[in-house]
Amino acid sequence: MLRFFDRALNAQGSREYVVFNYILLVLIFLSIFLLVVEVRYKDDIGPQMAVVVDVADYVIVIVFAVEYVLRVALAEKPKKYVFSFYGIVDFLAVFPSLLIFAFGGVVSVGFFRVLRLFRLFRILKIVRFRREQDPFWKGVLAQTAPYMAIGMALKIVVFAFEDQRWVPEIGNLGTVIAVVGFSIGVLLGSKLGVAQTRLHKFEDSLIETIGLLESIQTTVDRSLIREWTAQLETYFRTGENPDGFWDVHDRLILKMQEANIGAPIRASINQKVSYIVFRMKTETPRIYDEFLQRILIFYALAVIISIPGFFGFLSIILICYVLGGMYFVICDIDQPISHSRTAQIDADISPLLDYMKRLGVEPGLSA
């Protein structure tokens, strides 16, 4: 049994881990929903429904408490976990409710109910390793779903308190929201254009390089060309050992020079290969990327706060999926060959694979 819980809590990517995190996600949303009921509709629910709400809250707290104890017990370094950021979040997700249950008549119930909002940070913990570790997630929807969950959770909190007298009224920000949204679209569109251009140039450079190699393969030792293609394919596939490829490439250029192949052809191959290899690792400047991330976050928060009711929920879902999805797609395109499990778009290297097949080189094996 302990082994099962250890896998559910620590074995990132395992089925137990994924299922357990889905259960936690449902419980987090349920607990936030119960908070909304307690704060906003406490005078409208009858005694029987109030009992149901209390029992559900008890069950959720017990689950979180057991999970916290198991995490401490199964952690390699319990003290390190307890005082880590997520360890403190786990503790605060349980502690306020336990105090309410134990000393409900003594402590400030309203204050400790608000402290239960720390459960929102549990969503961040679930998201933390999802993109790289969870093989069950694919596509843009999968990439944006956790952020939809965070946005929805925050909107639920705002919805719970937005009709309270102490909450300041926010004027009509529709025009501002629309203008900022349009500006974000322009920024994302600009980045998309640059990323697509780079991707197409990457593919064109590869095709042109293969064409140049085919034109000289009767002059240069074919075994060296086979080794060159195998090393390049290995680098594309693994992203490792570029030095091994460059060693073979330098020998190929030297053989071309010895075979009296013209300098323009050698220079062209060098230029295109350099672009292919280095472009595979380069990315958009970080400052631009971070700027886009911050804009998207602040824009989503502004929508959560300023658009009330049902349309607020709908708006945050659309923002996370449309703008967030566009951002993820652009980032994917901006890396011609990505080794991430969540990668959806890679450059087409089929010309290289076809050429290797004609040379009798099997992909996946260095010559």
UniProtKB/TrEMBL annotation:
Key word Transport present: yes
GO cellular component: voltage-gated potassium channel complex
UniProt-listed Pfam families: Ion_trans (PF00520)
Sequence intervals crossing the membrane: 20-37, 49-70, 82-115, 136-161, 173-194, 296-329
Protein name as annotated: Ion transport domain-containing protein
Domain Ion transport: 19-161
Recorded topology in the membrane: Multi-pass membrane protein
Subcellular location: Membrane
Keyword NADP recorded: no
Source organism of this protein record: Rhodobium orientis
